[in-house]
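so my prof wants the structure for this chain in the tokens format not the other one, which i didnt know existed until like an hour ago. anyway here's the sequence
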Amino acid sequence: MDEVVETSTAPGVLPLQWPLVGRQGELDEFNAALDDPRAHGLLISGPPGVGKTRLADEFLAQAARRGRTVGRATATEGAHHVPLGLLAHLLPPTVTDPHADLAAVFNEVTRSLREVSGPGPAVILIDDLHLVDSTSAALLAQLVDTGLMFLVGTVRTGEQMPPALATLWQRARVRRIDLGDLSREAVDTLLPAVLAGPVSPRTSGRVWNVSGGNALFVRELVVAALATSKLVERRGVWGLRGEFATVARLTELVESRLQGLSPSERQAVTALAVWEPVGLSMLEAMVGADALGALDRAGLLTVRVEGRRQQVSLSHPLYGDVMRATLSPLVRRRLLLGHADRVDAYGARRREDPLRLATARLDADGHADPNLLIAAARLARYAHDYREVSRLARAAITEGMTTEAGLLLGEALHISGAHDEAEEVLARAQAAATGVDTALAMVVQVRARNLIWGLLREEEALAITRAARDRVTDAAHVVELMLTEAMLLTYSGRPLEAIEVARAAGNLEEPRARAVRALAEVPAVIAAGGCETGLDMARRAYEEHAAIGEQIAIAHAGIHRVFEAYAHTEAGRPVEATAVAADAYRTMTETYAGNLTMWLAYQLGRAALLCGRPETARRWFAESAARSQNLAVASPRRLSLSGLAAAHGLLGDCDAAAAAVAELDELPVTAFGGPEHELGRAWAAVAAGDIPRAVRVLLEAADLAASLGYRSGEAWLLHDAARLGDPRRVVARLQALASQCEGRLVATYAFHAAAAVADRPDDLAAAADRFELIGANLLAAEAATAAAHAYQRRGERRAATGLSTRASSLAKECEGARTPGLVTAEAVAPLTRREREVADLAARGVASREIAARLYLSVRTVNNHLQSVYTKLGVTSRAELARALDRPGPP
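here's what i got, hopefully its the right format
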């Protein structure tokens, strides 16, 4: 929802009053009621902490802005027995006796209200309306009934209204809003406004999940996380380090919510805190239906229907956290074992029962039956809870290494970033897999992935895969290991070889084998220019992979959504790519928030770059870089840092771009997507004003891409070189790639470069049209700027003005992007490429002699170019030049 109240604060300094978000529908309803002569009030009902008072205060503020007379009062337990005590400060001075006749009081208040009334009835807010004394309730009811007052009230869910006021609501004179918790989208909007800066999607998701969307809990979590340095700003993006702690303030809030529970009600809440969800029938047998009914009415429970069963959970995660913190170890042990015994007595029939039994017995006694532990670890693996997999599998192998326990533990360690330990465990598991083809094939697949991604030992990964392929005898496992080899080739930066090996496997009947082949083949096909073919393959692979269910030693089916987003971007559909990746990101569970969401964040950054939204790209690349750093995987981290540097470069942030490149250079060189690692370096050079170096970097990276078969990446790099003023050197290559690559993006790149070389304004304008249709607004703005210059050179002033205006409009959609292609839109005569290079360096305070050295020119030539620039832009100094070019200026 749109932000309603704007705040201004320094990053990390919280505003006194937080913005109101996610409540536009309620605000619209209030304004409609205020305009409706039949409506005399609005009641806001909801549980504690949901934001009733904050919303009511905004209602009052809006009424005041509309010229209404306003007032507010807060009812309390202490004033509940004092007649008119609540309203004392709002009553006329002539009403001094709290025991005065109500009719006399009503007449006096009526006279006073008529004297001060504005364009409509006075709007009076009564907070905690359920605590109003009976005399005040009767007076308020009469004032509302006679149309002299528009009542805004707040009331807690489950509380009884005073009879005099309840009749107003029942007769629809006072409308009612049942206020719920904030949505995920509202929290996503709220946090950046509060922190005065972008927030990583993972952090926003954690705040929403832990708080349940309760506005008060959100506030307390953020305040506590800032105070304890759990919430920190890195690379301009706020993110969470570790997990939220249950702080004293939150504990007090939750405990106040749980005050007054009967012993049986508290027993139910405690049981759920230790072991949730619990079947409704089992919980009823423990505490009785009356206790559950009372908890349900109080809003403390959530009941979810699963088939023929009803599962009960606490309505907010924090309730369980606080209750568990109050339990002694012995009490917790007794509750865990008692509930485990009850589940056993029911036959442990549910699919998840082995997991719940194993974790309960492990938590209670520190050990459990190894077979139960392995079964539980398998279930945790299917749920992608790798932390729990590690704990359970470690406990299982204390009795001795088995192939399955080692496989489960090794895979969990690999995915969690503990690559050295994963290699040690998987090597032992492989040694234990003698004579078992299935176990050997699975262990080798996971071990090979760990070697290539975590330890960067590509040749060793290929060697153990080929050796295992020679050893197994089952045809299905031979094929799966062959496809694993293809996957290793893809992620070793050899897409064309990977495609050959994957296709040599022939027609595959086994769904798992088809899923493994897709993991290797689809990204290779897209990288080689087959984006439309790859898109179809990714969609089909996702459906097939999801249909076979969760399996060990294979990536999550959601990886095909990553490939789908990748294909959309390379085809020239960044808007669709964003929709696919954002949807997949939202649906990923928090326990699987590791490598898959890392790749989704990366694809969202790439799509944002193509759209010309560098600020959005910066946020996603920072998220991806942080995730890849946590998982200790160098290749995706290099890609993310390169994208981050490119986003900073597009924003003109020289220092931040250079810092991202420096961090990238500290990492080992990796092959996957290698040419694209240089994209950030090029744009960092642009931000520093060294366009010739940027072009050299791009052309060298494009040559590498061509040698490896990364055709779509080659086209991106070549077109960026064209954008920086060197289209003549790349146009032939782009035209050749356009005939090799599917989709409209590369063809549009080639068209734009050809138009720039020929200096045809009509074609440049058409290129702007094509880029805008794609959704690439920054590229469209640059093409429109070039078209305006070309028309200007031809003396077609009207056309030049129109294109210049269009370029400015498009650039406004690009989040502050500052690129050479947008420079000089206001010049009387457009600058040449060389003049732009000289002007950009001079505007940054670089001396003429240094400019000459960088550009391989004489100092006289530099000064001649600079004089021409001054004339064209109508400036007389480098400081004025910096302002004209929107550059930082001389130090």
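also thought this was worth mentioning. DSSP finds 43 helices and ten strands in the chain.
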